[in-house]
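quick q for whoever's on today - can somebody do inverse folding on this one?? i tried earlier but teh output was garbage lol. tokens:
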């Protein structure tokens, strides 16, 4: 797998590819106002709006290269800034090859880097191979950057020896100049089982990452005893230079040292910290092989060791629970280990559920306990199917996902819970389940849940029907109008309240209108308007009649629409509503008179038209 290309131009030392890229991607000094506006929008956080403006400004095919490139570079900058690596990689796949060579190199380099960010190192290698072998002549700074990305790709692929061979030639050509260079070289040495050179390489560095790598080199090179390394790592954690977002890097070394020294409690504790981790600072690739099952194994190993000392038997759950309760306050890691064994190997389902609830309670008290829960139960071979995760844990994971606005994950978890959990009110639970399913895209399951809920309600209260109605509105918002109409019909049968029936006809009409079934929509709007009397003209009836007129005009029933609008114009006293109705009548006149080609229909004033709209929050027409 190892391949490289020697640099043929040994010019001045490379000072960082960013310096070259700044010159390459900077727009001309006289950048037009549109480009400045795009940049300002993106920097203010409105990246999507900036992209829409770019789409308007930038032609599909570049006619004037310099202007097109300036916009394309800004687009890539926005993708990088917002972490949209997949969009960046896809966009640059079609980068025109007839552009200036510097621009092509920049685009392909950005694409390779995007693949690495997406954890697709093989795709990155393919791009880099083309850059190194097929594009020439090439300046030294470009070649240095490409060869560095090749090393990183090897690391991501777990090709330790290839990474080492590439790095040995690379650092001969480009000796490490800064901290990042030395850290990368140290990681490659450790990954390829050559820890002896690392301490000297990092001797002048005094930060947490260098300290972690030095300790790991001393451990794996047998320079210091595992227990001594473990103790040194724990001391390092108290140092002011250890940042919160990379403390788990040191914990990874402590976990390895603790395991080697036979310290089971510290091993489990350290692995908890590693898995809880920090999303912005993952462990350096290639150095450790930790996952959720590493911690499960550490829990079981610790609990089994302690249980053997006390002569506990697997299947005799009572002593294990007693030991866990005694350890909860002062030794929570030990308690979690006991509960883990009971969750996995408890004699009865009741014991396993009891252990799961106790385990959750302890996790809630732990810093980053939510992240640790997700790692343990969603990324472990212990639970290959979501349904295998204890019920109480799935409920907790739903709450965690909702707290993070991860609606799709919450919906997928909720879909696996068919029965109402203990201590939950059936109506509230099913309603919550339905809403989460619908919001997460599980429309069919959400619809079925509401059907089952309504079928179980023999004498529903109006308040309950109103709560169900809010979830049906979610179905409408999701575009599931067929399902919404089915539920509206069921609700019509369950209510005796005239006001409620009136509302339901209106919302049913809304769904038919969204499905472009305009005649049926008009019929239901009018049914809503006239339910309390054929001549009703209260605000609700006026709004329903107006919507019926709009639907009739869209159905091509112009005479009927005109009759409705004229009748409304005679009875309404609101000036803004009168203005809307006159505009609607003018549009009908243009349609009927066939003058649409001669003059545009007058636009309806949005603010005035809203006088006939149902407010989204209350869903009640005014």
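ok took a stab at it. sequence:
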């Amino acid at each position: 797998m190892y391949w490289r290309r020697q640099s043929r131009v040994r010019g001045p030392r490379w000072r960082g590819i960013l310096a070259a890229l700044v010159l390459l991607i900077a727009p001309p000094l006289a950048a037009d106002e549109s480009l400045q506006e795009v940049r300002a929008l993106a920097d203010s956080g409105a990246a999507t709006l900036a992209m829409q403006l770019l789409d308007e400004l930038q032609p599909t095919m570049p006619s004037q290269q310099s202007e097109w490139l300036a916009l394309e570079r800004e687009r890539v900058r926005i993708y990088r800034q917002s972490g949209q690596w997949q969009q960046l990689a896809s966009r640059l796949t079609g980068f025109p090859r007839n552009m200036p060579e510097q621009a092509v190199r920049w685009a392909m380099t950005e694409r390779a880097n995007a693949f690495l960010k997406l954890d697709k190192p093989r795709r990155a290698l393919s791009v880099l191979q083309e850059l190194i072998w097929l594009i020439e002549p090439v300046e030294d700074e470009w070649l240095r950057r490409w060869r560095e990305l090749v090393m990183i790709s090897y690391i991501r692929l777990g090709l330790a020896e290839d990474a080492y061979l590439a790095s040995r030639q690379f650092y001969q050509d480009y000796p490490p100049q800064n901290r990042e260079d030395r850290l990368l070289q140290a990681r490659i040495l450790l990954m390829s089982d050559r820890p002896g050179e690392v301490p000297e390489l990092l001797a002048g560095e005094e930060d947490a990452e260098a300290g972690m790598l030095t300790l790991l080199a001393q451990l794996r090179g047998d320079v210091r005893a595992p227990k001594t390394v473990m103790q040194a790592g724990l001391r390092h954690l108290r140092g002011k230079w250890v940042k919160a977002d990379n403390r788990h890097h040191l914990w990874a070394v402590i976990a390895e040292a603790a395991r080697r020294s036979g310290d089971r409690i510290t091993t489990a504790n350290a692995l908890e910290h590693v898995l809880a981790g920090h999303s912005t600072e993952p462990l350096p690739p290639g150095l450790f092989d930790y996952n959720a099952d590493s911690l499960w194994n550490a829990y079981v190993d610790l609990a089994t060791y302690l249980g053997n000392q006390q002569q506990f038997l697997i299947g005799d759950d009572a002593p294990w629970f007693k030991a866990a309760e005694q350890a909860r306050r002062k030794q929570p890691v030990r308690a979690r280990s006991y509960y883990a064994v009971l969750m996995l190997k408890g004699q009865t389902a009741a014991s396993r559920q009891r252990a799961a609830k106790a385990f959750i309670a302890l996790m809630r008290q732990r810093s980053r306990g939510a992240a640790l829960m997700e790692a343990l139960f969603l990324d472990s071979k212990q639970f290959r199917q979501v349904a295998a995760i204890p019920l109480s844990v799935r409920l907790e994971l739903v709450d965690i996902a909702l707290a993070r606005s991860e609606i799709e994950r919450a919906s997928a978890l909720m879909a696996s819970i068919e029965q109402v959990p203990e201590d939950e009110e059936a109506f509230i639970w099913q309603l919550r389940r339905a809403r989460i399913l619908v919001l997460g895209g599980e429309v069919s399951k959400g619809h079925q849940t509401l059907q089952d809920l309504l079928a179980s309600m023999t004498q529903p209260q109006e308040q309950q029907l109103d709560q169900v109605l809010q979830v049906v509105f979610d179905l409408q918002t999701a575009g599931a109008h067929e399902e919404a109409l089915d539920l509206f019909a069921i609700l019509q049968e369950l209510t005796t309240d005239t006001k409620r029936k009136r509302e339901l006809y209106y919302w049913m009409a809304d769904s038919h209108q969204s499905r472009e079934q305009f005649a049926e929509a008009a019929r239901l709007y009018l049914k809503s308007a006239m339910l309390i009397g054929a001549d009703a003209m209260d605000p609700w009836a006026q709004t329903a009649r107006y919507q019926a007129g709009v639907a009739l005009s869209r159905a091509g029933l112009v005479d009927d629409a005109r009759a409705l609008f004229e009748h409304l114009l005679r009875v309404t006293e609101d000036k803004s509503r009168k203005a809307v109705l006159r505009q609607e009548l003018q549009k009908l006149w243009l349609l009927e008179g066939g003058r649409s080609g001669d003059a545009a229909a007058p636009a309806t004033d949005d603010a005035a038209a809203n006088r006939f709209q149902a407010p989204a929050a209350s869903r009640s027409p005014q």
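fwiw Residues 1-31, 595-609 have pLDDT under 50 and may be disordered. also The two ends are 71 Å apart (CA to CA). so keep that in mind when u check it
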